[in-house]
Amino acid sequence: MDRKGICEVLDRNRIPCGTDLPEKLEIYLRMLQEWNSRMDLTATAEDEEIVDRHFADSLAVLRTDLISAGASLIDVGTGAGFPGMVLALARPDLSVTLLDAQRKRLNFLEAVRDGTGAGNVTIVHTRAEDGARNRIHREQYDIAAARALAPLNVLCEYLLPYVRIGGYALCWKGPSLREELEKGRRASRILGGRLEMPVSCPIAGRDWEHMILPVRKTEKTAPAYPRKAGTPKTKPLGEENG
């Protein structure tokens, strides 16, 4: 898919963007396909589905007012850069940090940053739990985002320690959100957050049930959280006996 086709997808999905975004996303798409041929970045192979599933879905949040002008955003467990790198390309006013535990993914994102001239992107190699215990990152961001990373209660422990009071954790979710809400609500309270109403983010021409759940940071996260790396996943907060 070329930049004209990408522009048409953005228009169909009513995504606000600058005139140079389709060109940057075309570069990103070509690099993703090239690197994906030799390493596992995404299971999605076709250009059209990549643009819909990864680019348009990442950018659907721009139809809302959840990301204010000049915000600082950290994408935790960014993988191939969704949503963080895509948002950085669409919104040069944002200060975007891409965090991941796998060095090979970050090598790819460094190449994308250089290839697209994304000067608003910082790349950090660490585990989610370890990064949130570092004072450089702890409660320093307006937004902590993650897409297709973990169940909601686990996600809250990954994200909320990065968010300053008054900011948001933004969780990209599918139909499983309904089953995750109650445990996520209990976990968010423990971590100083409050679930808000999920925002439906449909993608034109697709029957995917995609949503973004904002979790408002209302008070500081206790020093005990996040727990050591691996614990949030194996012993999730918000369970009935938790």
Brief write-up:
The chain has 242 residues and is of the alpha/beta class. It has nine helices and eight strands. Strand 4 (141-147), helix 7 (152-159) and strand 5 (163-173) form a beta-alpha-beta unit.
Task: Explain what you see.
The structure is a single chain. By secondary structure, this protein is α/β, with parallel strands linked by helices. The protein has helices at residues 3-12, 21-36, 47-59, 84-90, 103-116, 128-133, 152-159, 177-190, 231-234, and strands spanning 72-76, 95-100, 121-125, 141-147, 163-173, 193-195, 199-200, 211-217. Strands 1, 2, 3, 4, 5, 6, 7 and 8 form an 8-stranded mixed β-sheet that branches. Helix 5 links the parallel strand 2 (95-100) and strand 3 (121-125). The longest helix is centred in the first third of the chain and has 16 residues, at 21-36. It is globular, with a radius of gyration of 17 Å. The termini are far apart.
Topology (elements, then pairings):
Layout: H1 3-12, H2 21-36, H3 47-59, E1 72-76, H4 84-90, E2 95-100, H5 103-116, E3 121-125, H6 128-133, E4 141-147, H7 152-159, E5 163-173, H8 177-190, E6 193-195, E7 199-200, E8 211-217, H9 231-234
Parallel strand pairs: 1-2, 1-4, 2-3, 4-5
Antiparallel strand pairs: 5-8, 6-8, 7-8
Helix pairs in contact: 1-2, 2-5, 7-8
Main sheet makeup: 8 strands, mixed
Q: How does the overall form come out from the CA principal axes? A: globular
Provide the succession of SSEs: HHHEHEHEHEHEHEEEH
Structural class computed from helices and strand pairing = alpha/beta
Tell me the number of helical segments per DSSP (H or I, 4 or more residues long). 9
Uncertain regions spanning at least 5 consecutive residues: none
Global mean pLDDT:
94
Would you count the extended β strands for me? Answer: 8
Kindly state the percentage of residues in helix: 25-40%
What Rg, in angstroms, do the CA atoms define? 17 Å
The rounded distance between the terminal residues' Cα atoms is: 48 Å
Strand content: 15-25%
